[in-house]
Amino acid sequence: MLDDDTRRIEGIALAESLARGTGDPEAALHAARLFALENRRDRAIEVLRQGILTHPRHAGLLTLLADLLSRTGAFEEADLYFLHAAESSADSPELWYRRGLHHSRQGQSARARDAYAKAVELDPAHVRAWVNLGLAHAELGDRGSGMRALERAVHVDPNCAEAHSNLGVMCAEAGLRAESVSEFRKAVALAPDSPESHFNLGWALLHEDELEQAEAVLIEAARLDPEGAESLYALALLHQRTGNYARAAAELKRAIELRPGDARLHYHLAVAYNSQDAVDQAILALETAARLSPEDPRVFRLLGVAYDKKELPHRAREAYRRAAALSG
Fold first, then answer.
1. Burial of 95 per CB tally in 10 Å (0-12, 13-18, 19+)
2. Average pLDDT, the chain
3. How does pLDDT run across 52-69, given as a tens digit for each residue?
4. Domains and CATH numbers, the chain
5. How buried is 6 (Cβ within 10 angstroms: 0-12 exposed, 13-18 middle, 19+ buried)?
6. How far is residue 291's CA from residue 139's CA, in Å, rounded to a whole number?
7. Secondary structure (3-state) at 319
8. CA 277 to CA 36: how far, in whole Å?
9. Which residues of the chain are under the pLDDT cut of 70?
């Protein structure tokens, strides 16, 4: 069995052979895709430019070049090639899908929505276009249309974990908690190596007070993504809920190592310390949270409590006064 390095070397060699060996635009397209897969984006762009010199109206070459330029942040040049591709083949669903991604990268949600809508109009079975159409609708504040697009994606491909996961998020936002848990379970079953799917399910189970299941799922999410702080944060909230403040503090300290500038983590660490009457540690965590998030009244309210425990009345009054001013 070939190892990853061998596959990579052979893939690049094949791409170079295709790029050199013929003027066939399909060979150039295949070569560029192989280079892109191997993170040789500059070489892929070079091959596509050469191919377009001899085949200036080839929609596939134009579309892929536009897409790769967009991924590098060369948005104006990408716009030009997307226009050329549309002039050559305006009925290509892949063109409109890639154009939607291009607009999404620039935060142009309305233009992205319109491009994705065109893609699914031309190809109603384009699952990823349905998924992204749903997300674009949601970004524009139309959750109903977003859910309908994602439901269509699930109908077209029941095995699309991304569609189930995003549909679960929208169900949760709409207050459809049972439905969201169901969708997240499907996403985990379909993508068992996805930390995001596990986190979403664990978070939903936590809010349903299914704490034993939530803990197991969140531990797996943290295992799948050792650099992710959100699963550790969720585990800390779970342990706080069960009164296990020492474990909550341990998870939060791990999360803070990964994300030291997150005031929320320092605040909840202080909550865990305060609940164990470790007042000095709570004050240190709260003072850090106050530096990071000086407009959060919760931080100063709890800081007042901690100063009271330390019999520091002047500091406590100032903290309470600050909390009241921030609360309006």
1. buried
2. 93
3. 998 999 999 999 999 999
4. 256-328 (1.25.40.10)
5. exposed
6. 31
7. helix
8. 56
9. 1-11, 15, 21-22
